[in-house]
Amino acid sequence: MDKLSAFPITQRWKPKNSDILQLFGCPTPNGMKPMIALEELGIDYEYHHIDISKDETFTPEFESLNPNGKIPAIIDPDGPDGEPIGMFESNAILIYLADKKNALIPQNIRERLECTSWLFFQAAHIGPFMGNLGYFYKYAGREIEDPRPVERFAKESERLLNVLEKRLDGREWIMGDQYTIADISMAGWIGGVISWYEAGPIVGWDKLSAVPAWLERNQQRPAMQRLRERAAG
């Protein structure tokens, strides 16, 4: 019996190779996180595109893996005990993958906890505020005449960028010399604010120096090049 057959999601999105990690997602800021980590770590994986425009995350098959109906989610046939494991929530997946290879996260306990704090900073602040900024500035929220939603989320996004600007002053990466899952967790969101939402003018992007340089370093990493080639091919 296929060792992934116990996961109902595989009945709709069938693995071609059930011996490698299965990734269910799409290229959103959260969806890109495990893709980047998997490329960085050199873990073989099979990608299943989930069409969020068609609400495929809210199907019974997908919700069997993530009850919250959000991408990304994974099934690793080689879990911690050698048995398959399913996971959801992008930052939880990042921690799992980093621990699997003992990479992309500090091994010193104090530095590890500091890195984890920055992951929660992204999950609690960067993602929600910048996501809402995109909605109200570029998407359906633009139909709302009240300017206060855009003003609120732009102001807070600018503040968060300045928090990161101070952190990166004199540092190559969020944790210093080591590129970690903290960087992975934020790069897609911040890049999206500038390139996809085109919100740079309202979040003070031209006043920053450390953050734009850090974002460029993220985008130039070989793993990102491989993902661009994968998308193009």
TrEMBL record:
Q: Which CDD domains match?
A: GST_C_Ure2p_like (cd03178), GST_N_Ure2p_like (cd03048)
The GST C-terminal domain, residue ranges: 108-233
The Swiss-Prot or TrEMBL record annotates one GO molecular function as: transferase activity
Q: Which InterPro entries match?
A: Glutathione-S-Trfase_C-like, Glutathione-S-Trfase_C_sf, Glutathione_S-Trfase, Glutathione_S-Trfase_N, Thioredoxin-like_sf
| Cross-referenced Gene3D superfamilies | 1.20.1050.10, Glutaredoxin
For this UniProt record, the keywords arranged alphabetically read as follows:
Transferase
Q: Which Pfam families match?
A: GST_C_2, GST_N
Domain of life, per the record?
A: Bacteria
Start and end residues of each GST N-terminal domain: 18-105
User: Signal peptide span per the entry?
Assistant: none
PANTHER family for this protein: DISULFIDE-BOND OXIDOREDUCTASE YFCG (PTHR44051:SF19), GLUTATHIONE S-TRANSFERASE-RELATED (PTHR44051)
Question: What is the name attached to this protein's record?
Answer: Glutathione S-transferase
Q: What is the lineage of its organism?
A: Bacteria, Pseudomonadati, Pseudomonadota, Alphaproteobacteria, Sphingomonadales
